[in-house]
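Priority: medium. Attachment 1 of 2:
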């Protein structure tokens, strides 16, 4: 399945935002993901490309996602060199390789959402029961467990994101990409909701009616 490329409106909107605006959005998302139980404390990391550069900012090692401020982010270039004084999260390689593999995206969110991780642990394909699940998530690629913080998991993620904006790292968490902060966050929310509904159906022992093929065909036909 093709990876959905950003719409013109998304690219235009993101390119107009300055660093302070994007940083503020990312800080807000950090608070929201903890409030929603998508991460616990420092369990995850957030990053975004600095507009107009070959550098990205990523939450520093050990930072609490619901307590972020402008000094919580490390600066790393696309050669993997840390160019600031803050030490980046140990998972910075996953973000780095994702940006190199996907020059069309500007935001990478890595979290440890319970429902998404559990579906993978139970080997359950995630069911898309609403049109929002289809529109925002599309398809999910799973990566077998690999030790966190290694180049191995970063390289595997780089291959996976060439096929999808949403990746589940088994027994670990998820990686979600987008051209904007809000779209990345929306994809995370829909991934976890779809996972939760999948688990409910599994618990009930029922096979749900998923979004009809006609909707997928509509999106494909209209390049949405």
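Attachment 2 of 2:
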């Amino acid at each position: 399945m093709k990876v959905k490329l950003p719409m013109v409106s998304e690219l235009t909107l993101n390119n107009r935002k300055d660093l302070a605006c994007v940083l503020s959005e990312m800080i807000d998302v950090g608070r929201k993901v903890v409030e929603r139980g998508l991460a616990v404390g420092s369990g995850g990391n957030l990053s975004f490309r600095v507009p107009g550069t070959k550098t990205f900012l990523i939450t520093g090692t050990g930072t609490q996602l619901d307590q972020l401020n402008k000094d919580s982010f490390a600066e790393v270039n696309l050669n993997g060199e840390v160019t600031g004084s803050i030490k980046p999260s140990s998972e910075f390689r996953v973000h780095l390789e994702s940006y190199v593999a996907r020059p069309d995206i500007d935001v990478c969110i890595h979290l440890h959402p319970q429902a998404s991780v559990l579906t993978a642990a139970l080997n359950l394909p995630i069911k898309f029961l609403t049109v929002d699940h289809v529109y925002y998530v599309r398809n999910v690629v799973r990566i077998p467990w690999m030790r966190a913080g290694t180049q191995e998991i970063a390289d595997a993620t780089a291959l996976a994101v060439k096929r999808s904006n949403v990746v589940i790292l088994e027994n670990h968490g998820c990686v979600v990409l987008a051209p904007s902060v809000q779209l990345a966050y929306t994809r995370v929310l829909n991934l976890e909701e779809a996972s939760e509904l999948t688990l409910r159906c599994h618990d009930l022992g029922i096979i749900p009616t998923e979004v009809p093929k006609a909707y997928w065909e509509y999106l494909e036909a209209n390049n949405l």
